[in-house]
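Reopening: C-alpha cells for the adenosine-5'-triphosphate complex, inputs below.
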Amino acid sequence: MASDILVVDDEQDIREIVSGILSDEGHETRTAYDSDSALAAISDRVPRLVFLDIWMQGSKLDGLALLDEIKSRHPDLPVVMISGHGNIETAVSAIRRGAYDFIEKPFKADRLILIAERALENSKLRREVTELKKRSGDPAELIGTSVAVSQLRQTIDKVSPTNSRIMILGPSGSGKELVARMIHRKSSRAAGPFVVLNAAAITPERMEVALFGTEGTPGQSRKTGALEESHGGILYLDEIGEMPRETQNKILRVLVDQQFERVGGSKRVKVDVRIISSTAYNLESLIAEGGFREDLYHRLAVVPVRVPPLAERREDIPFLVDMFMRQISEQAGIRARKIGDDALAVLQAHDWPGNIRQLRNNIERLMILARSDGPDTAITADMLPTEVGDMLPKISTQGDQHIMTLPLREAREMFERDYLIAQINRFGGNISRTAEFVGMERSALHRKLKSLGV
Ligand SMILES: Nc1ncnc2c1ncn2[C@@H]1O[C@H](COP(=O)(O)OP(=O)(O)OP(=O)(O)O)[C@@H](O)[C@H]1O
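Re-run output (same inputs, fresh job):
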C-alpha cells in the first residue's frame, strides 16, 4: 500500500527531488513550502510521514517550532528533518524533541529511500505493538477444526486480497472482530492502520465526531475521526445496526465519493479506506422497521461473511479450552491443568449464548477457582463454575421434594443475562431501545453485556 508522505521545504528544487524519488518508489506524496501550508496539508489529511526542512525562509514557524506543533497534534506521526550542512546540531536536537531521524543535504536517493522506509516501518511496528497490547489475548489464527471454521478460513483467504466491503454477521462474542483483524493482516492494507469504531459503545450525539472528527475552533484544536485515522487501511464499524439514521446518510455519501467533511467544517477530506462492518443482530428486520437504510446495507454487505455461534461448532470447544488454558496460565501465572473428560463433556454440551468470549471467561474463572486444589489434579465436572454447570445444579432431596440451589450471585448473573438477552431480542437487537426500556445508559448496558459474556 502506498504511503502518504508530506515534503515540507521552502526550496522548490528540493521539494521536487524528494517527492520525485519517493513517488518513483510508489509512495503518494504531497508538498508544502512553509509552516502554514504544511499545517494545512496535515489537517487536510494526516500523512504517514513528514520530511521537514529545518530552515525555511518566509515561514511563520521554523522547522523546530513546526516539529513541536506537529508532534503536539499527532504524537505518533514520524517526522524526518532535512538539514543543511551547517545545522547538524539543530537536527540532533530535533531528534531529542521527537523527530524520527534527519537527512543531510545534499543526499543520495538511496539514503532518502532507506530513511523513508525505516521511518514507515518503525511507525507501523509501533502501531502493531499498541494493537497487540490492546488485544494481547488474540490468537494469530482461528482455532478450530470444525467444518464451519474451515469454511470461514477459506472465505477469509478469498476475500482478504480484494478491496470489497465486507459485512461480518454473527452473534456477540463469536469472533467477528478477530475475523476482521485477520482480513486486515492478509490484505494489501496490512501495513496500514486497523481502526475500530463500536457504534453500540458511542452515544448517537458523539458518533459523528468519532467518525468524521471536528474542524476545531480558534480555542479548540482539530480532532481527527476514525475515517481519517484509517486512511490507507481498514475501518471496522462494529455493531453497524446501532448507527444513528442521520450518520447512516453521511456514511453512504462517504462510500459514494470517498470524501467527507469534519464536523463544523466545510473542507472536503479525501480518504482511501476499506470498510468492514459487523452486526450481531438481524439487520433485515431493522431495515423493515425503517431503522436502517437498505441501500447502505447493500453497499456495506458486498460480501457477507458469517461467523457461526459456538453452539454450532461444539467440536472446536476442546481446542479452544486448551488454547485458553495455556494463554491464561501464561498471562496470569497460573499453572495449566488437565481437564477431565466429564468436565469437557459438560463444556461441550453447554449452549454458550455469549459464545467464545463467555467460554474464555469461564475457563479463566475455573482456573482461578481450582488453583488451590493442587496443580496435578485434573479438573472434573463438579469443579465447573455453576454458570457453566447450569445443567449441573446442586440438587438435594428433602422427603419427596427436590431442591435446586445456585449460589446467589451466580444465579443473579444467570437470570440477568437471560433477561437482557430476552429484552434485546424483543427490540430486534436495538441496544438503544433496550437500554431505554431497562433504564440503563446505552454504554453501561453495553459494558454489562460484555461482562456477562453476551
Ligand atoms: N476461533 C477463535 N479462536 C480463538 N479465539 C477466538 C476465536 N474466535 C474468537 N476468539 C476470541 O474470543 C473473544 C471474542 O471475540 P471477538 O471480540 O472477535 O468477538 P465479536 O463477535 O467481535 O464480539 P462483539 O460482537 O461483542 O464485538 C476474543 O478474545 C477473541 O480473541
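Residues 300 and 342 are 44 Å apart (CA to CA). The pocket of adenosine-5'-triphosphate is lined by residues 137-139, 142-144, 170, 172-178, 238, 280, 320, 356-357, 360 (CB under 6 Å). Marking as resolved unless the reporter disagrees.
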